Amino acid sequence: MLDCGGKVLDLSAPRVMGILNVTPDSFSDGGDFFCVDAALRRAEAMVAEGADLIDIGGESTRPGSAGVDAGEELRRVVPVVEALARRLPVPISIDTSKPDVMRAAADVGAGMINDVCALQAAGALAAAAETGLPVCLMHMLGEPRTMQHDPVYADVVSDVAAFLAARIAVCEEAGIPRARLIIDPGFGFGKSLTHNLCLLARLDDLRSLGAPILAGLSRKSSLGAVVGRPVEGRLAASLTAAVLAVQNGAAIVRVHDVAQTVDALRILAAVSAARQG
Ligand code: 8Y7
Q: pLDDT tier at 28 (50, 70, 90 boundaries)?
């Protein structure tokens, strides 16, 4: 059980995190007005489809992307977090690396911090600790602008595990107990196709770190590289990856296609139950 700012996330069964991007290409009027109502309708639809939490992000972390400043990110996400936290029964996760955004989102009801920089930004550790919220620590090699330029590891799974273990230790020292942490290998963040496949194949190696695992593979380019399809044709690949991630130990999958993922995981659960008799 994770206490997400008053809302409970029960991790005794796999959970689905629905992705809600609040960036200029989504829920905007074409200018810089972000339509809270449209974001709310999309989030409500994901909850109706079975999403157990909603991840709101205001900064694109795609390969090659530049950042946005804190003022802009706050303006995008805070009204959406506030509306969703008030109206939805599920916890709202805030996808940010910025301490000011963590604090502001927590103040308006966010239930989790999802940080692709694993609280390494200046002030992020203290800000996250102050909120008292669960935190997802993700591994990334390098930074979004350059991370896909020939990433190198000694052994990708042990390197990622060592990084996450070190971040867990730093968090514990800063007053964020392991029971409030989630770990994520960061599929696609400074990883070649082979690295991503190794991490998925050996995801359960990360279980020894003693924190639930979150896996984000939905529509990612490594899946596209295997099946040879553009982003809009990656549903089957994404569902297969989600099922494999859960089978290999993921507690939470971060996805765009909630309804289909929920169905896929129901089949996995039904078959697992039959095996156990
Ligand atoms: C992940 C993520 C993204 C992921 C976690 C995309 C924000 C890229 N990917 N957060 N965020 N894990 N925890 O394609 O894999 O969705 S953005």
A: low
Tokens of 82: 């506030």
Task: At 268, list the tokens.
Answer: 């996995």
CA distances for 256 relative to 7, 218, 246, 274, angstroms: 22, 6, 16, 29
| Centre of ligand 1 from the C-alpha of residue 270, in Å | 28
**Domain coordinates of the chain in residue numbers?**
2-276
**Ligand 1 pocket mutation pick from 20, 95, 206 by most atoms within 8 angstroms of CB:** 95
CB 110 within 8 A of CB 85: yes
Structural contact between residues 23 and 60, judged by C-beta atoms closer than 8 angstroms: yes
Least confidently predicted of 64-73, 153-162, 185-194, 256-265: 64-73
- Residues within 6 Å of ligand 1 by CB: 19, 57, 61-62, 95, 114, 116, 136, 138, 184, 186-187, 214, 216, 220, 254
CATH superfamily, region 2-276: Dihydropteroate synthase-like (3.20.20.20)
Measured by CA distance, the residue closest to atom 11 of ligand 1 is 116
Q: What is the pTM of this model?
A: 0.96
- Residue 141 C-alpha to ligand 1 middle, in angstroms? 14
Q: Two tokens at 251?
A: 């507690």
Which atom number of ligand 1 is nearest to the Cα of residue 217?
15
**Which residues are marked as active site?**
220, 254
Residue 19 has pLDDT above 90, yes or no: yes
Checking if the pLDDT of 163 tops 50, the result is: yes
> What is the DSSP annotation of 48-116?
HTT-SEEEEESS--STTPPP--HHHHHHHHHHHHHHHHHH-SS-EEEE---HHHHHHHHHTT--EEEET
